[in-house]
């Protein structure tokens, strides 16, 4: 009887964790406060659902019967610790920034091991987030578009190094400081085209880039200086100890200045072009927003993150594929079994779509303003679920690793992309950077952090690939942490790709930094996997 009371208390108490997932699927609203009323409600619901109590006590996360009779399996025992610690971390982040709702999905070696919603998909109507909740994925859309570009490239239909005018003559030829320059697809996918982002003031952009370049150069000089000192080994140890804090202080000061940019970028959402309400019938029409604007930099010379560069890229995909960009992408989603991934179309009825939120000047949560994202499908115009993005990440990871499993070549299906294509796509490109991950470089549609360790028994930098997103009323991250494959294990034939951890987090409020959180969670699951 005591165990029954405990089980019913969990049902009747505040919704959290795995219990939250169960209640949200039953369509329950907010739980009443604890007390006599709560007990009566909890007993009634417990009897109605047929809460099952084992001989001992029902364990946390044990399967419970859904309204439709479906029984969801409990969390994998091997990852119970990782799930608990990651849920606590995610709840802390949610509380810290005041986000209405967050949905997370984690897969290990291609199998989804955790998906959960925290908070509300719709605050006004008390609709709770669940794994199936669909939200804006913002700039993760660029990764989806890059998949389409890579597919057309490896099929021999797209020349990455041809001028974009070969495919989109509507985009005018460009000059920079009186010199005729060429913009190619390869430059577009790595943000090296010189095409502007939302900021129209070229002076402001150049000033910001100059400050960032100085900070980066200082960091590189400090690092080079330290390496030279170690190689020469002529400096006195005391001198090295005294010099290091000074160098570290300079480095931290400049890094701090660079890291403050994202905070200043809260003003980025003040740019009027974030809030365009015009509906564009096709991607060619949307080029009119920026096609006649001057280039901010010479193509190939400097990194300038540009969503409009991906709008031009969508026009390239449309012309090369021979069908509308949106149709081509939806067909690709179908092939990838991403059936919950759709266009962010305001008119369509999209089940499980969350509402979007922002904070007003008083810090109060309000509904995000109406926007039409048809001008940037490729760079930030898709909706998706945690589960679909896990499928996408694993399709990439499988394609990346399948070529290494040579002994299983006859048993394994080919990846959606060839291994060499993924390797090229995930190779850091010179002259690029990543504002959300100082350890990374931009590659082709992704940020890549390479494996590195400078000192023994010190920080080990793992190889991982990620992309974040920020849109009106939305934040997101997709991170892939590949397993460091051992040749002996590969040749044993006992394991198959994909091998590694994929983490996706989507949130229905803007300006929420999620990349470092995703990396911490990925490492937690990787630790449990190896245990």
Automatic annotation (TrEMBL):
Gene3D superfamilies found in the cross-reference section: DD-peptidase/beta-lactamase superfamily
Ranges of residues in domain Beta-lactamase-related: 89-216, 282-506
Residue ranges of the region described as Disordered: 224-260
GO terms, molecular function: peptidase activity
Domain of life, source organism: Eukaryota
SUPFAM superfamilies, A to Z: beta-lactamase/transpeptidase-like
Cellular component, GO annotation: cytosol; mitochondrion
Biased amino acid composition, Basic and acidic residues: 224-257
Any one GO biological process: proteolysis
Record protein name field: Lactamase beta
């Amino acid at each position: 009887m005591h165990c029954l009371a405990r089980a019913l208390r969990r049902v009747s108490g505040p919704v959290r964790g795995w219990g939250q997932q169960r209640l949200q699927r039953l369509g329950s609203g907010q739980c009443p406060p604890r007390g006599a009323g709560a007990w009566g409600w909890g007993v009634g619901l417990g009897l109605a659902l047929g809460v099952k109590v084992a001989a001992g006590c029902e364990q946390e996360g044990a399967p419970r019967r859904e309204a439709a009779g479906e029984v969801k399996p409990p969390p994998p025992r091997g990852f119970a610790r990782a799930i608990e610690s990651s849920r606590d971390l995610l709840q802390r982040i949610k509380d810290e920034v005041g986000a209405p709702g967050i949905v997370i999905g984690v897969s290990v070696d291609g199998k989804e091991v955790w998906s959960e919603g925290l908070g509300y998909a719709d605050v006004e109507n008390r609709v709770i987030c669940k794994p199936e909740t669909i939200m804006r994925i913002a700039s993760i859309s660029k990764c989806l578009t890059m998949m389409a570009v890579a597919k057309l490239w490896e099929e021999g239909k797209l020349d990455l190094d041809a001028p974009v005018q070969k495919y989109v003559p509507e985009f005018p030829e460009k000059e920079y400081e009186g010199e005729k320059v060429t913009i190619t697809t390869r430059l577009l996918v790595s943000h090296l085209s010189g095409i502007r982002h939302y900021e129209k003031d070229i002076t402001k952009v150049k000033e910001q880039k100059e400050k960032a370049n100085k900070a980066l150069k200082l960091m590189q000089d400090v690092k080079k200086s330290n390496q030279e000192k170690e190689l020469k080994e002529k400096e006195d140890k005391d001198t090295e100890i005294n010099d290091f804090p000074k160098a570290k202080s300079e480095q931290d000061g400049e890094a701090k200045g660079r890291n403050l940019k994202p905070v200043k970028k809260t003003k980025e959402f003040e740019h009027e072009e974030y809030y365009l309400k015009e509906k564009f019938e096709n991607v060619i029409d949307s080029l009119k927003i920026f096609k006649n604007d001057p280039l901010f930099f010479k193509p190939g010379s400097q990194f300038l993150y540009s969503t409009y560069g991906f709008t031009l890229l969508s026009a390239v995909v449309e012309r090369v594929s021979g069908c509308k960009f949106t149709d081509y992408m939806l067909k690709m989603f179908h092939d990838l079994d991403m059936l919950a991934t759709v266009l962010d179309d305001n008119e369509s009825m999209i089940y499980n779509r969350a509402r979007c939120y922002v904070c007003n000047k008083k810090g109060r949560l309000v509904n995000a303003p109406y926007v039409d994202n048809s001008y940037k499908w490729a760079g930030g115009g898709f909706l998706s679920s945690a589960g679909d993005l896990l499928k996408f990440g694993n399709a990439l990871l499988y394609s990346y690793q399948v070529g290494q499993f040579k002994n299983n070549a006859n048993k394994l299906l080919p990846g959606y992309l060839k291994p060499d294509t993924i390797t090229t796509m995930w190779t850091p490109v010179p002259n690029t950077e990543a504002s959300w991950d100082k350890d990374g470089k931009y590659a082709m549609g992704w940020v890549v952090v390479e494996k590195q360790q400078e000192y023994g028994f010190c920080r080990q930098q793992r190889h991982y690939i990620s992309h974040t997103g920020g849109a009106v009323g939305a934040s997101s991250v997709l991170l892939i942490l590949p397993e460091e494959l051992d040749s002996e294990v590969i040749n044993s034939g006992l394991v198959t790709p994909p091998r590694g951890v994929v983490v996706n987090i989507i949130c229905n409020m803007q300006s929420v930094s999620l990349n470092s959180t995703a990396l911490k969670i990925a490492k937690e699951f990787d630790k449990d996997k190896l245990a």
